[in-house]
């Protein structure tokens, strides 16, 4: 584990993929301590990144203990200065393990909410699905000073889920970032293992399947509600707002599945999602893997690399949307390898995904994306390594021009 301060990478100024490098924020320790499940948020008003992860005593989900955070300050030269890791002691409950960080920033009050789940003891997800006995709680902490201090943890299970919890074998949020829509609504992506049928109080085998949904707030985080589940198998998910050419909002959901990702759109800000379908351009491994998606303003043009042609650039104005999407996920069909970035210039069409740009050759796992609108830059956290994706969680920044390069990879 790194201590003190260190300087992170800056995005390529030339679009040369070879220039991009990774900065290790969390690294597996010799005593077995492992860091997993990254989440990233960029606070634009104070030029600060907050990077979250689970701290575990082993790679196993059962050995998750507490959430950790590192603060990164974006400098004028584009580098990021990272403070040392700190444990989030208020984001916990006695006899529960803390998992699945999901931050969202409320711009009006400048309040940062960090959602997570707490799971009783060492109860596994599998055991909850077999017995139908939920041992998971929906929890949240908040900060009004950009993550320097945090409120005590609040258990929102009863107020948000209520009696429906008896139909949920287990559930989780994200993992990864939430989003605030243009209308002010806060969105936390979530999923549940829904119990459709029981026999003698136990779920009927093979009928407990994951379903994605949103948890949302219409009053800037004062109260929270849950939306309706997707009508198709869908697990860990992230969501992004798409603004079409007429200024209408669409909430896009991208969820873990088997074989291919699951996509859906909501026309009512996350209350429910219509017509979930598989995205055949976005491949999944057999058991799937978490992925990250983010929306950003569609550019009118991207400057060409050579100085003489920068004034004109290349026209890229989308005919049907003001928003593009960027998606991050391992690109290998058979194993968690070769982390890639997929660009979608027509996100209201399911076939709009470009072929991926590889950002890490080798073992890759969970990830999270953030966008800096001031500099039109992207940043990400990703699980990666040489022999295993559990070796480290790394940070990297890049530009849209980098994503659109036709070379092989950003970094090897």
UniProtKB/TrEMBL annotation:
GO terms for biological process: ganglioside catabolic process; oligosaccharide catabolic process. GO terms for cellular component: cytoplasm; membrane. It catalyses: Hydrolysis of alpha-(2->3)-, alpha-(2->6)-, alpha-(2->8)- glycosidic linkages of terminal sialic acid residues in oligosaccharides, glycoproteins, glycolipids, colominic acid and synthetic substrates. Pfam families: BNR_2 (PF13088). InterPro entries: Sialidase, Sialidase_fam, Sialidase_sf. Residues 49-374 form the Sialidase domain. One of its GO terms (molecular function) is exo-alpha-sialidase activity. CDD domains: Sialidase_non-viral (cd15482). Its EC number is 3.2.1.18. It comes from the Eukaryota. Keywords: Carbohydrate metabolism, Glycosidase, Hydrolase, Lipid degradation, Lipid metabolism. Signal peptide: none annotated. Belongs to the glycosyl hydrolase 33 family. This is exo-alpha-sialidase. It comes from Cynoglossus semilaevis (Tongue sole). The lineage of its organism: Eukaryota, Metazoa, Chordata, Craniata, Vertebrata.
